[in-house]
TrEMBL record:
Species this protein is from: Streptomyces viridochromogenes (strain DSM 40736 / JCM 4977 / BCRC 1201 / Tue 494)
UniProt protein name: TetR family transcriptional regulator
InterPro entries (UniProt xref): Homeodomain-like_sf, HTH-type_TetR-like_transc_reg, HTH_TetR, Tet_transcr_reg_TetR-rel_C_sf, TetR_C_31
Superkingdom assignment: Bacteria
The keyword DNA-binding is assigned to this record: yes
Gene3D superfamilies tied to this protein: Tetracycline Repressor, domain 2
HTH tetR-type domain sequence ranges: 8-68
Keywords per UniProt: DNA-binding
């Protein structure tokens, strides 16, 4: 019998593989077996690191959720009180949607999977809470949540309708919400 090799990156490789499987085949195509095959690890490795498919999906969603947050962090404008909040948010959406489209679609596919998989709901909510929290440094919590809802809605419309993202429209709509908070 071969000695077991220590492989600290195996868990991460399985998550990356799960994300690739969902990207290629949708959530319905993800199983412990398909993730193991994609990661080129024994089936027992996936079940060792992720007892259930929901655990694997939670890990994949948590990782996928980083996409939008990374764009916001790299731009840095949301933190700056001198920037136009609506314009900065609209610009971040545009940059995110113009980036890796598969990654964006995957984020939403995993996010919407929470409708049918209650185990994913807390992670889906984490994303909205994180964005709302960063926005509430610039506005009140109710306005921050409204901005997140509009960002979500506009991004979903772009993904589902195939209509190109219109940054000036997004800036206008987001600006109305921000202006309404000041009244």
């Amino acid at each position: 019998m071969m000695p077991r090799r220590h492989d600290p990156e195996r868990r991460q490789r399985i998550i990356d593989a799960a994300i690739r499987v969902v990207g290629a085949k949708g959530i319905a195509g993800l199983s412990h077996r398909s993730a193991a095959a994609e990661a080129d690890v024994p089936l027992g490795s996936t079940t060792y690191h992720f007892k259930t498919l929901d655990e694997l999906l939670v890990a994949a969603l948590r990782q996928a959720n980083e996409g939008f947050a990374k764009v916001i962090a790299s731009r840095g404008g949301l933190e700056d009180p001198r920037t136009d909040l609506a314009a900065e948010l609209a610009g971040s959406m545009g940059e995110w949607l113009a980036g890796d489209r598969t990654g964006v679609e995957l984020e939403y596919e995993l996010y919407l999977a929470a409708l049918r998989r209650p185990a994913l709901r807390p992670v889906a909510d984490e994303w909205a809470e994180q964005v709302a929290e960063s926005l509430s440094r610039r506005t009140d919590p109710v306005t921050a949540r409204a901005l997140v809802a509009v960002v979500d809605g506009i991004c979903l419309q772009v993904l589902l309708t195939g209509v190109p993202y219109d940054e000036s429209y997004a800036r206008e709509v987001l600006g109305r919400i921000v202006a309404g908070a000041r009244e």
